[in-house]
Amino acid sequence: MSHDVDGVRCMQMRGGSSKGAYFLADDLPADPGERDDLLLRIMGSPDERQVDGIGGGHPLTSKVAVVRPSRDAGADVDYLFLQVVPGRPIVTDAQTCGNLLAGVGPFAIERGLVAASGETTGVRIRIMNPTVGFADARVRTPGGRVRYDGDTLMAGTPFPAAGIRLEFPGGDAPLFPTGRLVDQFAGVEVTCVNAGMPVVLVRAADLGVEGDESPDALEGDSGLRSTIEAIRLAAGPAMGHGDVRDTTVPKITIVSPPRRGGTVTTRTFIPHRVHAAIGVLGGVSVAAGVLAPGTVAGGSPAEGGLVRIEHPTGVFDVHLDLDGGGAETRLRRSTVVRTARKLSDGLVWPRSGKAIG
């Protein structure tokens, strides 16, 4: 098939507080290099505006989900997340995306990979970046069809939609990948935590900021950004990710006391722009770091395992259970509620030529 002439089947969805293009794996080239080149041409990269593609000119709106029937007996579908960088010819699978994950269940049902069953349908998802994980999604399907309208208003999005419950089982890996609750990088005390997304927690006071500044104000502080990047580059190898200069992990989350009745206030670099909200799995990692005593964010009260994370556009609730203590703490289970909505479904046409090489 010539994708330039025939187009590529694609569904655009808002997943959580992000927006992306969803593809069946069979509709894309099997070779990763050819696939990535095609996605750059579809999304409009490299170009900060992505004016010649369907990307939105921001990391949160330049995302891709690739879905296929799972080859694992414990899952219905496999989900590979790809971040397409707006201004550079880069497509990376170094992290997953919990926001686009919210749309994987509806997409799998829409494409016939999972049959609708009753008022809600369960979809078992195997997450393929880069460490395999699993999630269970519950999608509303009255009358055998995905229902997107509803009254769940999720912070980071302006309009309500049907709630999608996502549950993540725990694992055997410790939450603190450096083997310590507190490390020091670039002269700053931090906590490195990974409950599905590698995150470095830093106290706002240690960076000379209040912690409730606007994303624009933080992005405009060149001294702060320099310190944040120095921390990130030192934390990457310590967390087992090697040289992270050209990758999107780990994220850096600035933590400070709550202002609106929550558990903690956050501002998250992803890694160079500041998130307008907080990522799903990033939020789970933050919640784990807040719930575990002895971290730079530990000791905050969290009744019944509920951590309410304040971010620039609202509050994100995470329910989680932890096992063990200290540096050997493990995640038993976490649950969040997100929303997703189908925006368009049809064909997209990539620009001609090659984006890479």
Automatic annotation (TrEMBL):
Keyword Isomerase applies: yes
Keyword Isomerase: yes
UniProt cross-references to Gene3D superfamilies, sorted A to Z: Diaminopimelate Epimerase, Chain A, domain 1
GO terms assigned for molecular function: isomerase activity
Similarity comment: family membership: Belongs to the PrpF family.
Listed PANTHER family: ACONITATE ISOMERASE-RELATED, ISOMERASE YBHH-RELATED
Name of the protein described by the UniProt record: 4-oxalomesaconate tautomerase
Lineage of origin: Bacteria, Bacillati, Actinomycetota, Actinomycetes, Micromonosporales
